[in-house]
Amino acid sequence: MAHYVDGFVIPIPKKNTAAYRKLARKAGKVWMEHGALAYFECIGDDVKPGKHTSFPQAVKLKAGEVVWFSWIVFKSRRHRDTVNAKVLKDPRLAAMEPQAVPFDGKRLIYGGFKTMVEL
Questions:
Q1: Taking the mean position of all CA atoms in its chain, how far away is CA 110?
Q2: What is the mean pLDDT of residues 37-53?
Q3: 0.85 exceeded by the pTM?
Q4: Domains of the chain
Q5: Exposure string over 54-78, b if 16+ CB within 10 A, otherwise e
């Protein structure tokens, strides 16, 4: 069965790792309660700058930051749109001010992806 995935690459200041992890747990719970099939938040462990491109280069990683790679799994794009509409209205996240998040949202990379190979 093919799925749909929302993917994120986020530069997080290392000093904000605990705050981001707390936010991610909260957000993940909200997404799962509204129907997401899976929710992952991963901190970079072996993420080096490349010669031409890389995760650090993509987010313009600064000293003292670490890359997080995250994704949420849905049944389909339609299912994603339905779940995300509910998540955006959920008071646990809707009231969150952009300046309250522990990262620079302007450097977050986000996209929706159709699964092409699933084993």
A1: 7
A2: 95
A3: yes
A4: 4-114 (3.30.70.100)
A5: ebbeebebeeebbbbbbebbbbeee
